[in-house]
């Protein structure tokens, strides 16, 4: 399997403050990986950097082509979808119109992508005209994921998909992310504070602390790592 996404010695800055320090990681095509860490560890900054939203040093490449210096719309066009943790939905717009915002780089695929979103999230089809500010957190998370899928992504970045959501909804979201990988060969990077959720979903984990990768490995191996279980599972 070839490396699909490669991050090489990436540092990211907000003004002069360095938020990420020399991050290197790789993701194979069709793989789900998780970036795990506490609040403020730099997880969102890492995803923002892939999307061209921060000032960076180092390299980020997708299928061997560097994304550095590209605008966010160009990065979306090259096959990267982003469902940010802050939802970033338009609260007084309908579900349908929020989804359409994600389709600006893939207008010719609207019909196909909308069918995929409605198949994965039947609830959104039922609520197509509902304004998103009236929806539950779980439904808004579905709209956020759906909107990212409207851009025909081959790489999907999902920031904190379970934050503030009931376990039952977390499970639904995990099922959808697995289906995206299995049925559409979508490569997925999630960030999570909830290490247990990350382990049920991802094959490999990177543990981020204060902007640096502290531990990396297969989820099945890290489950039994005393250092990790103490720090992130409260055992």
What is the topological layout?
Blueprint: E1 3-14, E2 17-28, E3 32-36, H1 43-50, E4 55-62, E5 65-66, H2 72-77, E6 80-83, H3 95-101, H4 110-120, H5 122-126, H6 137-149, E7 155-159, H7 167-184, E8 187-192, H8 195-201, E9 204-209, E10 212-218, H9 219-222, H10 226-232
Parallel strand pairs: 3-8, 3-9, 6-7, 7-8
Antiparallel strand pairs: 1-2, 1-4, 4-5, 9-10
Helix pairs in contact: 3-6
Task: Give an overview in words.
The structure is a single chain. The termini are far apart. It is built from 10 helices and 10 strands. It has 2 domains: 1-44 and 58-79 and 154-163 and 174-235, 3-Layer(aba) Sandwich (Rossmann fold); 85-152, no CATH class. The chain has helices at residues 43-50, 72-77, 95-101, 110-120, 122-126, 137-149, 167-184, 195-201, 219-222, 226-232, and strands spanning 3-14, 17-28, 32-36, 55-62, 65-66, 80-83, 155-159, 187-192, 204-209, 212-218. The strands form 2 sheets. It has a 6-stranded mixed β-sheet with strand order 6-7-8-3-9-10, sandwiched between helices. Strands 2-1-4-5 form a 4-stranded antiparallel β-sheet, covered by helices on one side. Helix 3 packs parallel to helix 6. The protein is globular and about 45 Å long. The protein has 235 residues and is of the alpha/beta class. A hairpin with a 2-residue loop joins strand 4 (55-62) and strand 5 (65-66). Helices cover 37% and strands 29% of the residues.
């Amino acid at each position: 399997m070839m490396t699909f996404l490669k991050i090489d010695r990436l540092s990211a800055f907000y003004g002069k403050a360095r938020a990420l320090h020399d991050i290197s990681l790789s993701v194979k095509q069709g793989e789900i990986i998780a970036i795990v860490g506490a609040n403020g560890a730099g997880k969102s900054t890492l995803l923002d950097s892939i999307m061209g939203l921060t000032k960076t040093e180092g390299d980020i490449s997708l299928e061997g082509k560097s994304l550095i210096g590209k605008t966010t719309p160009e990065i979306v066009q090259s096959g990267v979808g982003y469902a940010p943790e802050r939802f970033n939905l338009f609260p007084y717009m309908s579900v349908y119109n929020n989804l359409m915002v994600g389709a600006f780089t893939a207008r010719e695929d609207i019909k196909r992508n909308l069918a995929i979103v409605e198949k994965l999230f039947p609830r959104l089809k039922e609520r197509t005209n509902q304004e998103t500010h009236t929806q539950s957190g779980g439904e808004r998370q579905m709209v956020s994921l759906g909107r990212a899928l409207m851009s025909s992504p081959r790489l999907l970045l999902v920031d904190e998909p379970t934050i503030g959501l009931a376990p039952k909804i977390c499970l639904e979201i995990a099922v959808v992310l697995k289906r995206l990988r299995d049925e559409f060969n979508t490569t997925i990077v999630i960030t999570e504070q909830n290490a247990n959720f990350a382990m049920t979903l991802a094959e490999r984990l990177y543990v981020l602390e204060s902007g640096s990768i502290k531990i990396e490995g297969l989820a099945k191996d890290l489950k039994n790592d005393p250092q990790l279980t103490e720090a992130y599972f409260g055992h």
